Amino acid sequence: MKNLLIIGGTGFIGYHLSKAAIKKGWKVTSLSRKKPKKNRTVAEVKYIFCNISKKNNLKKKIKKNFLFVVNLGGNIDHSSKKEVYKNHLEGFKNLCDILLSRNIKTFVQIGTSVEYGKQSSPHSENKDKIPSASAYAEAKYLATKYAQNLFIKKKFPIVVLRLYQAYGPNQKTDRLIPSLINSCLKNEYFPCTEGHQLRDFIYIDDVISSIFKCYGNKRAVGQIINIGSGKPKKIRSVINLIKRMIGKGKPDFGKIKLRIDESLKLYPNISKAKKILDWKPRINFNKGILKTIMSYKHKNYRK
């Protein structure tokens, strides 16, 4: 039986990945700092708890061997630079150091689009320099470089997926799309920018399929691969689409000013994912938004 270790398995992506892996008949272990909430608990998953920045404790928790590993772990709160580095860089290094001697077939490290910093879009994986935007961007970038170095020097079978804005059912309402849906469902006034920024959104099912495409894929090992739709949307059009589908909502365009350093265009070139992973997004944006809206309508996520 294929077995999978998900670091951060109680989060949004981890929850959906757990469900998909169980459906495939895989054995799944989730490692996270906290227990999953009721609506993100998967009965067949084994849950273990540990802070990955504490190496000795982590060694005790990861006792068995796993064929496949994915690192979705990290700290959502980026206010403390020290904690960001502990969780997104030092914790990642701890994982690699422990798993280096294990017989792993593939380790998928989830990176982020902010690793590109202020580079112009569409982002290509071969255009690379250390970002200066935030501690989070820098920590994730350094983790990517560490991963590549491990592959080059020790043939560690690691793939870095640089993820753009994932969305879908069961995401916390502090994220952009759930927040917009929540406000429209309540028919609230909500402040927003003029909405001229271009952003790339990728439905959760497509994110999960990209992760599975990495496992056992020798061509992907050692690579950085962008995962997004490749079809950016204006924030204003996203807001208007959600408002139209729900039939209510009161966006106050222009109420919030753009940040001085905010990029107007942020989206990827996904040709490498198509070539190396034989992957492309299957869920178009309108369908993905409708599925997400319906999930919020029919489940009590709005509290």
Structural category is alpha/beta
Main sheet: strands, sense, barrel: 7 strands, parallel
What level of helicity do the residues show?
25-40%
Count of beta strands: 14
CATH topology of the largest domain: Rossmann fold
User: How many individual domains?
Assistant: 2
Counting DSSP H or I runs of 4 or more residues, the number of helices is 9
What is the residue-mean pLDDT, rounded to a whole number?
Answer: 93
Explain what the structure shows:
The chain is α/β, with parallel strands linked by helices and 303 residues long. It folds into 2 domains: 3-165 and 202-227, NAD(P)-binding Rossmann-like Domain (Rossmann fold, 3-Layer(aba) Sandwich); 168-199 and 231-266 and 283-298, UDP-galactose 4-epimerase, domain 1 (Alpha-Beta Complex). It has 9 helices and 14 strands. The strands form 4 sheets. It has a 7-stranded parallel sheet with strand order 3-2-1-4-5-6-11, sandwiched between helices. Strands 12-9-14 form a 3-stranded mixed sheet. Helix 1 (12-23) packs across helix 6, helix 5 (176-185) packs across helix 9 and helix 7 (235-246) packs across helix 9. It is globular and about 55 Å long. 40% of the residues are buried. The model has no long low-confidence stretch (mean pLDDT 93).
